Amino acid sequence: MKDLTYGNYKTLISTLKKDYSFTCFSKIKFSNEPINKKVLLRHDIDLSLEKALEMAEIEHELGVSAVYFLFLRSPFYNIFSGKEEKIIRKIIELQHYIGLHFDFAKYDNLTISQMSYQIKREIDFLQDFYQVKLDGVSFHRPLSLDFFSRLELSNYPHSYEPVFVNNFKYLSDSRASWRFGHPLECEEYQQKENMHILVHPIWWNEENVKDTECLDNLRTVYHQGFEQNLYSELKSFWDGKKKTDNEK
Questions:
Q1: Based on the structure, what is the number of domains in the chain?
Q2: For 204, which of 3, 50, 59, 139 is 20 to 30 Å away at the CA?
């Protein structure tokens, strides 16, 4: 059950679905529906949009929606490139929510108000390009809860607001293991209390794979993509080289 395989993920979601309804951050913050037996299923997309799409397809098959938090500025993917734009639009088409995964490290020594301004700027970029209302904001390597308690983004909830911290049991597969216990083994699940589950698609596979292998696989895919893009962008150059070589 604790192995991070797609089979176990399907079991987890199917089991939760029997007793819980899946929701999103904006509904919890802004609607009047009771916060009772709810699951906030969230994905922070740190490394791979391809892996995110695999998970989105599984969830769609099971009839649940999750929130996919995307970097605006990532060294590993480009949300404005043709290929990766198609992946994100497919995730939206599968009836999932999109949010901003904000990285404090991209900015230096900002005040709360300055940080709020930069977050809203990144939200605007994402929304304008994809023409979809973002569900909220999550944070990469988050700061202290005291900081978050003072951060207000008006129409956009963030994942560390008191309404989420105080009303939901938080569980995460960070570093390729369930750091705060498996969702189906915790006391809160037995009591059918609300759950906020963070899942990183990069760690999940058809079969059980070691954490370092997951990163090796990512490295392989990344290099393959680089070679394909290099050839595609310089096709006339390579064709000319082959022609010259053949004439020698």
A1: 2
A2: 139
